[in-house]
Amino acid sequence: MNESKCPVPREQQPTNEFIELSKSRIFSWPKTKKSLILILIKFWVGGFVLFLLISSGSVYFKTSLTKYILLSIFSSLSIPLLISIRLYLGWNHVFNRLISEKVEYEESGWYDGQIWEKPLVLKEKESLIASIEVKPILKNLIQILSIISVLALSGILIFQYNNF
Length: 164
Fold this sequence. Notes:
By secondary structure, this protein is mainly alpha-helical. The chain has one domain. Helix content is 68%, strand content 6%. It is elongated, with a radius of gyration of 21 Å. The model has no long low-confidence stretch (mean pLDDT 89).
């Protein structure tokens, strides 16, 4: 954005928000689908170990090893699910700001919100960034969230309707 014409503070400009989010250590994970899947699998395995330790103290699960392991597997899905939701919310926020025709911003605090309408050249530039850079990331995150949700719901159904 042209600094002389744009009243929006630099850190609140959608293009700069996109750049900062892209450079962020955590929010750069979904840039490639394979790396995000590997990271989420690592969190899932770590969560599995954690939930194994937690559920090992239950007298109820000591009688059934199958329930004990399955509960840990499906409970540990909550960690990658929460991470994926957080990543999706952050990228979706930037996507919405990039495709918006107006930019909401604060000059010095939460109490003095302003709205600035983007010029046509900037709208086109940011729309291009949104469609080429951010939209594939959101698509990947939705796919991953769907897979994790289906796995978690199937785990709930297994525990609800099966007697081990």
